[in-house]
# Entry
Amino acid sequence: MIKKITIVGGTHGNELIGPYLIRKLEQDKSFSQSAIPVDYLLANTEACKRASRFIDADLNRSFTDEILNNNDDSVYEHRRAREINQLLGPKANNDRFIIDLHSTTSNMGMTLIVRDQAAFNLQAASYVQQHMPDVKVILSDRDKSFSRTLNSLSDYAMAIEVGPLPNGVLRHDQFAETEVVIKHLIDFTLMRHSQQPTALPRTIDVYKVTERIQYPKSDDGHLSAMVHDSLQDKDFEGLKPGMPLFQNMDGTVTHYEGEPGFPIFINEAAYYYENTALVITRQETIALTG
# Structure
């Protein structure tokens, strides 16, 4: 049973939609009359001050049990993760719905990244799709495998990703669209809380991650290729073997050799430090339960 809702912004300090949107929602008292208390959290406060993704380490990779149970305060984001765990947790406390707001430099449109932990998450995503059919849904198993994101603090959680949006920039249309998604998610949560009937489809189309493709590098460690022009901005469009993947610095082209799939986070700026050029997913239709 969900007893609290927390809207999180600024997990990455250079993604401005989250911090400014939670400030607006709080100032407008948008959910002050909600039957379920709604609160707000600016996650990486120091990185937000600097408009940088993080200070010492990626906060959204800092919620592992090892970090949360450690007392080493030398890494700012590790210390902050433990503070957030105390505020929102303890970890795996299942009475809080966490909505974590993000933006991406990739051409992802409006995307929900849903935890594969509770039937409620997919039901809520499906409700959003009923009102916003262009919304894509990624079913994430990374928390199950690595349990390292902020959303791993609760089984009821999802991230909102909107793009393309440069880091350190606000766009009115994407800001407004994210606010609409939040309102749909909270409406659905309140309807479930009051046991109000909600008609949902029997199935939902989701994308599941199958592979992460790295950038080629030269012997001295520098990039030796870039995402091919024909692939750029083609997030969620089909990628088949033989299609151009990388434009190499020597003028040649590397073609895709993997299984057919749907690429996402293509040429995402934040993933350069992880050397990830794009992520491959497969599309599945799964039954809505519960």
